[in-house]
Amino acid sequence: MNMIQAINSAMDVMMDRDPAVIVMGEDVGYFGGVFRATAGLQAKYGKTRVFDTPITECGIIGVAVGMGAYGLRPVPEIQFADYIYPALDQLVSEAARLRYRSAGEFIAPITVRSPFGGGIFGGQTHSQSPEGIFTHVSGIKTVIPSTPYDAKGLLIAAIEDNDPTLFFEPKRIYNGPFDGHWDRPTQNWSQHPAGAVPEGYYKIPLGKANVVREGEALTILVYGTMVHVASAVVADAGVDAEIIDLRTLVPLDIETIEASVKKTGRCMIIHEATRTGGFGAELSALVQERCFYHLEAPIERVTGFDTPYPHSLEWAYFPGPVRIGEALKKVMKD
Amino acid sequence: MPSDRPGANLPPLSLYVPEPRFRPGDTVDFTEVPVPPAGQARRPDTAEPASAFTDLAYDLVRVLDADGQAVGPWNPRLSPDTLRAMLRSMVTVRAFDERMFRAQRQGKTSFYMKCTGEEAVAVSAAFALDRDDMCFPSYRQQGLLIARGWSLVDMMNQIYSNKGDRLQGKQLPIMYSVRDASFFSISGNLTTQYPQAVGWAMASAAKGDTRIAAAWCGEGSTAEGDFHSACTFASVYRAPVIFNVVNNQWAISSFSGFAGAEATTFAARAIGYGIAGLRVDGNDALAVYAATAWAAERARTNQGPTLIEHFTYRVEGHSTSDDPGQYRSAGEASAWPLGDPVTRLKDHLIAIGEWDEERHIAQDKEIAEMVRAAQKEAEANGILGHGLHQPLDSLFDGVFEEMPWHLREQQAQMLAEETASGRPWARK
C-alpha cells in the first residue's frame, strides 16, 4: 500500500469497528478527497457517516467538537494544513481545553487529518508545516507518520484516543519515500518494506518513537518526509548515525531520545518547518537540559528558513541533502 | 493643471463610523425604536418553508400587551402553574445575580456577570425546551440552569472555585459546565459554541436521536466568523438547532451598531442562509417561550434550524469589571420601551387573577432567603483567594486523559517546590 491507501484503510477499519467514527471535510464524500484518502468510504458507510462540508475550517472543527461532545468520533479533514488557521481558535481554545475546563464532563475525541509539508511545488498555500503552533498548545496531540505502515497504525491509535489529535500527513511521501534529490525519480512504496501494510486492525501507540537506524556516532531527530531525506544523506555520507523517527511530537518519546543522545554524544534535529520557535527549538532545549554533559558538539538544527514558503525557489528552501550534509560535517567535526 | 493626487476632481470619500444615539448625560428618547402592538405578528405553521415568513425577521413577536394580557396567535396559553414557575425562576435568577454581584464586590470571587433585564431569554427557553436538549450557552444564560432546577449551591461553588466546585477551580467564575442539566461547558471565546451546537445537533440527527441543540450568543459576536460558519452548516444539513441571538444593545461599550444593527436586524441574518428567522420581544417571557417552542417543533420535525433574535436590553454592566456609566446614558435602562421582563410576567399573572402583590413580595423574601442560605452553604466550602481549595496536584488533571511524562515532571517539580516552601497545601 502507499500512504494514502494505508490512511484509507485505517479509516475503513475504524468505521467498520465503531459506528461512532465519522469522516467529514471538503470533498471527502462522493469524490473521496483530493488526494483520494477517503475514496470508497461514503459508498461503503453511507453519507451520514462520510460527508462533504462547506469550505469553512472553523466550521468543520467546531462542528467536529460538538459531534465529539455528543459521543461520536469525528475524523475531520483539513484539505491542506495551510488552511488550518481559520480553525485555530476551535482547536486551541475549544478542542484542546474542553476536557480540562469541564473537568472531564465533556471531551473532544476528534482526529484532524491534514496533508502538510512541501516539496510538491505547492507554493505558500500548499506547503507549510504548522506543527510547532500546535505542539505549543496544552491539551492537543500531534502525530506525524513517515511510512504507510506507521500511518495506518498511528491513525488507528489516534482515532481510538479520547484526546483531540492532529494527524499531519507528509504529502511529499504519499506515494513513495523521498531522498531529497528532487531531480531523481522517486521510489514507490511497493518497493519499500514499510509499504507492506496488513489489511486489518493494528495500532502503533502514540508517544513511542521508532529507531529507524541504529548508530553510535550521532543522533538525528526527525519526522515525516525528513526521515527519508536524512536516511539518504546518512547513507551517502557513510556516517554511523542513529536516526529516530519521532512519530508523535506530543506526547514525545523522551526516553528514546535521551538514551540515544547519551550514547552517541551528538545531536542533529531536522524539520521542514520554519526555524524560529519551531519544534526543533523545543527538542534542542530538551536535549541540552538532559544530555548536556554527554554532548561532544553543539546541537545542530536543520530547518526551513524563516520566510513564507517560496514557489519557484522551493528546493532552495527545502532542507535537502546539501544543507543536511553541511550540518552533518559541522556536528561531526571534532 | 497637474495634480499631486490622481482623481483630484472627484469628491473625496468619507468613512462612516456609527455612534450610539445617547451618551452619558444625554436625555434618552426611545420613540424611534419600533414597538409593534402585542399579538400583531402572524404565526406560520412550523412546516412552512423559511422563505414564506421572512417578514417575521423584521417584525417583533410580542404576546404580552400593555394591560398585562396575553394576546394574538403566538400566545402559548400556558397554565397558571407554568407561568408561576417561570416567574419564580426569573426572580431567582435576579436574586442570585444580586447576591453574587455583591459577593464579588466583597472580594469573595474574581468576576461575575449579571443578566438583569434579560432573565426571560434563558428562563423561558428552558421551559420551552426538553430538559435533555443540549444547551450551548453564552455567559448570560444562568437562567437555563436555574429554570432546570440545578443546585444554586453547585453554581456558587463554581463561582467561588472552592472545594465543592465540580470544575476543580479550573474555569473562570460563571463559566459553568453541567452535563447532568444538558448545559454545555461555557467558553469565554465568543460564538465558538455556535458550530459546536450545530455539530451536536447533526450528530443527534445522524444517530436518529430525538434531542435537539440550542445555542446563544450576543448581538455583538454575530460578527465572529464562527457565527457564519455555523449558519452555513446548519442550513446545509438542516441541523435540528436553535440559534439565539441576544440583542441586548451593548457589547461591553460597543453599541449594536458596530455589529451591523443600523443596516438590518439580527434575525434577518437568517434569511441569507435560508434559515427561519424570528425577531421577538426578549422582555416578554411568553413571546420567548412561544418562539422557542415553535423553533423546537421545527427542529424536532426535521424542518431545520431557526434563528431567534431576542430584542432586549442589558440593564447592568457587561461584567463586574465594567463601568457602563462611562459610555451610556444613565437613563437608558428605565426608558427602555419594552419594560422589565419580571414585572411584565408578574403583571400578567396578576391581570389574569393568578397572582397578587402580597404573594410576590412574600416570594421575593422567600427566594432572597433561599439564595442567602445557598450562599452560606457554598461559602462553607471556601471562597476564592482564601487558600487553595483544590488538591495542589489536581492542577495537572484533565489536560489529557492520561498524563504524559512532561506533565508528570512539571507536577513533580511543583510539588517539590511547594514542599520545600513549607506551605501546607493539600494533596490528593
Automatic annotation (TrEMBL), chain A:
<dbReference type="Pfam" id="PF02779">
    <property type="entry name" value="Transket_pyr"/>
</dbReference>
<keyword id="KW-0560">Oxidoreductase</keyword>
<dbReference type="GO" id="GO:0003863">
    <property type="term" value="F:branched-chain 2-oxo acid dehydrogenase activity"/>
</dbReference>
<dbReference type="InterPro" id="IPR005475">
    <property type="entry name" value="Transketolase-like_Pyr-bd"/>
</dbReference>
<dbReference type="Pfam" id="PF02780">
    <property type="entry name" value="Transketolase_C"/>
</dbReference>
<dbReference type="GO" id="GO:0007584">
    <property type="term" value="P:response to nutrient"/>
</dbReference>
<feature type="domain" description="Transketolase-like pyrimidine-binding">
    <location>
        <begin position="1"/>
        <end position="176"/>
    </location>
</feature>
<protein>
    <recommendedName>
        <fullName>3-methyl-2-oxobutanoate dehydrogenase (2-methylpropanoyl-transferring)</fullName>
        <ecNumber>1.2.4.4</ecNumber>
    </recommendedName>
</protein>
<dbReference type="InterPro" id="IPR033248">
    <property type="entry name" value="Transketolase_C"/>
</dbReference>
<dbReference type="GO" id="GO:0009083">
    <property type="term" value="P:branched-chain amino acid catabolic process"/>
</dbReference>
<dbReference type="InterPro" id="IPR009014">
    <property type="entry name" value="Transketo_C/PFOR_II"/>
</dbReference>
<dbReference type="InterPro" id="IPR029061">
    <property type="entry name" value="THDP-binding"/>
</dbReference>
TrEMBL record, chain B:
<dbReference type="InterPro" id="IPR001017">
    <property type="entry name" value="DH_E1"/>
</dbReference>
<dbReference type="Pfam" id="PF00676">
    <property type="entry name" value="E1_dh"/>
</dbReference>
<feature type="domain" description="2-oxoisovalerate dehydrogenase E1 alpha subunit N-terminal">
    <location>
        <begin position="11"/>
        <end position="50"/>
    </location>
</feature>
<dbReference type="GO" id="GO:0009083">
    <property type="term" value="P:branched-chain amino acid catabolic process"/>
</dbReference>
<dbReference type="InterPro" id="IPR029061">
    <property type="entry name" value="THDP-binding"/>
</dbReference>
<dbReference type="InterPro" id="IPR022593">
    <property type="entry name" value="Oxoisoval_DH_suAlpha_N_dom"/>
</dbReference>
<keyword id="KW-0560">Oxidoreductase</keyword>
<feature type="region of interest" description="Disordered">
    <location>
        <begin position="26"/>
        <end position="48"/>
    </location>
</feature>
<comment type="similarity">
    <text>Belongs to the BCKDHA family.</text>
</comment>
<protein>
    <recommendedName>
        <fullName>2-oxoisovalerate dehydrogenase subunit alpha</fullName>
        <ecNumber>1.2.4.4</ecNumber>
    </recommendedName>
</protein>
<keyword id="KW-0786">Thiamine pyrophosphate</keyword>
<dbReference type="GO" id="GO:0003863">
    <property type="term" value="F:branched-chain 2-oxo acid dehydrogenase activity"/>
</dbReference>
<feature type="domain" description="Dehydrogenase E1 component">
    <location>
        <begin position="88"/>
        <end position="383"/>
    </location>
</feature>
<dbReference type="InterPro" id="IPR050771">
    <property type="entry name" value="Alpha-ketoacid_DH_E1_comp"/>
</dbReference>
<dbReference type="Pfam" id="PF12573">
    <property type="entry name" value="OxoDH_E1alpha_N"/>
</dbReference>
<comment type="function">
    <text>The branched-chain alpha-keto dehydrogenase complex catalyzes the overall conversion of alpha-keto acids to acyl-CoA and CO(2). It contains multiple copies of three enzymatic components: branched-chain alpha-keto acid decarboxylase (E1), lipoamide acyltransferase (E2) and lipoamide dehydrogenase (E3).</text>
</comment>
